[in-house]
Amino acid sequence: MNQVFSHQQRRVTAGLYLILGSGMGLLATQVYLAGYYEAILLPALLTPILLGLGLLRWQLDSRFRHDPAAITALISLGVFLLLQPNTLSSFSHWHFVGLIYPLLAFYLLPNGASLAVSLLLLAGLLGLRLKNLSLESQLIFAFEYLLLLSLAWFYELNINLKTLKLEKMTGQDQVTGLLNVEHLQSRLLAEVARSRSTQRPLALLLIELHQYPQVKEELGSTSADRFLREASELTLHTCRTGDEAYRLDDLTLLLLLPNTTINGALVLRERLYHHLLQEVICDLGPLDTSITPLVLQPGENWQQLWQRIGNSCYHTLSERVSDQLDSEEASPQR
Questions:
Q1: Which of 89, 111, 133, 211 has its CA 20 to 30 A from that of 176?
Q2: Within a 10 A sphere around the Cβ of 88, how many other Cβ atoms?
Q3: Biggest alpha carbon–alpha carbon distance for the chain
Q4: Which candidate, 103, 107, 28, places its Cα nearest to that of 69?
Q5: How do residues 216-258 score in pLDDT, each as one tens digit?
Q6: Cα–Cα distance between 5 and 2 in angstroms, integer?
C-alpha cells in the first residue's frame, strides 16, 4: 500500500510540474502574440525546465532529504512571480498565482522548508512586486497569503496526526507494513502467559539497522523509509510460519518466535543476517546491522522481558553510556 501511494504521489507531483510548464508555455505564446516582447524571456526559459522536471519525476523518485526537483520548481516559480514584467495594468494578474505558492510548497517539501520558502516569497513580493500599492492593499494580500499558509500548515499536521491514529487502530506501522509497538506489547503479554502455562520456549530477535539515522539525516526520510521497508520485507520473507514481525522503534525490527529455543533463534539469526547483507542495499555503504537473540527466562514476566528488550538494543545501550559519560564529565571534581 505504501509503495502504491508513493507511486501515485510521484505521478501527481510530476503532473504539477507539467501543468506549470505548460502554463508557462501558454503564457509565453500569449505575450508574444500580444506584442509584450519584454515579458517573453522568463516564461520561455522556465517552460523547458518545468517540463523536464515533470518528465524526470514521472520516471524517478527522489532519494534526497529535500527533493531537488521540488526546490528547482519552487525557485523557478518564485523568480517568475518576483521578476516577470506586468502585462496588465494591475498586479491582479499575478495575485492569485502568488497565493497558490504556499499550498504548492507544503505539498512538495517538508513543513520547515515549505514555511521558509513561502515566507521568503512573501517578503520578496511585498518588497518588490507590491511596493507601489497602498498599505491597505499590501496588508490584505499579506493576510490572504498568511491565511493560506496557515491552512496548509495545519492540513499537514492533521494528516500526520491521522496517520498516527490509523497506526494505533490497525496495529500496523505505515512505513514498513509490520505490526507496531502497541500491538507488540499486547502480543508479548499473551505469548509470555502462554509460554509459562504450556512450558514451551519463547524467543525473539532484535534486528537493528544502525545506518537508518544517518540515511535519514543525509538523504532524507524517503530514502530512509525505503531502506527500512526493504529490510522489513526481507525479514518477513525469511521468518517462519507462526513467527511475527514488528517495528520496535525507528531503527529496530523485532521477530517474535513462539515455541523456539535459543538454538532455533541462533539458526534463524544466521540465515536472516546473511540475507540482509546480500540483498538489502544501503546508499551509504555496506550494511551495518546487528541481530540480538533473546529468550524468556524462567519466572520472568512480560514487563521484565519488555525492559530487557529495551536494554538489549545496542543503540539504546550506547545512548545510556554516552549520557553516563556526559554526566560524569559535567559533575564537579572533588
A1: 111
A2: 9
A3: 89
A4: 107
A5: 888 877 788 889 999 999 998 988 888 999 999 889 999 999 9
A6: 5
CATH for the stretch 179-330: 3.30.70.270
Neighbouring residues of 190: CB distance < 8 A, sequence distance ≥ 6: none
Specify the residue for cell string 505469548.
191
- State the Cα–Cα distance between residues 138 and 133, nearest whole angstrom: 7
Q: Are 126 and 99 in contact (CB under 8 A)?
A: no
pLDDT digits (tens, 9 = 90+) for 287-317: 999 999 999 999 899 999 999 998 888 876 6
Helix residue ranges per DSSP H, the chain:
2-34, 41-59, 68-83, 92-108, 111-124, 135-170, 181-198, 212-219, 221-238, 262-279, 302-312, 314-330
Reading the block at residue 236, the C-alpha cell is 518477513
Sign of torsion, CA 142 143 148 154? positive
Query: In degrees to the nearest 10, what's the CA dihedral of 36, 140, 79, 68?
Result: -140
Decide: 279 and 229 in contact? Cβ < 8 Å.
no
- Rounded distance, CA 280 to CA 178, Å? 17
Domain boundaries, the chain: 2-167, 179-330
| Whole-number Å distance between alpha carbons of 230 and 236 | 10
Alpha-carbon distance 306 to 254, whole Å?
12
- The amino acid that residue 149 corresponds to is L
* Residues contacting 22, CB < 8 A, separation 6+: 47, 51
DSSP assignment letter at 297:
P
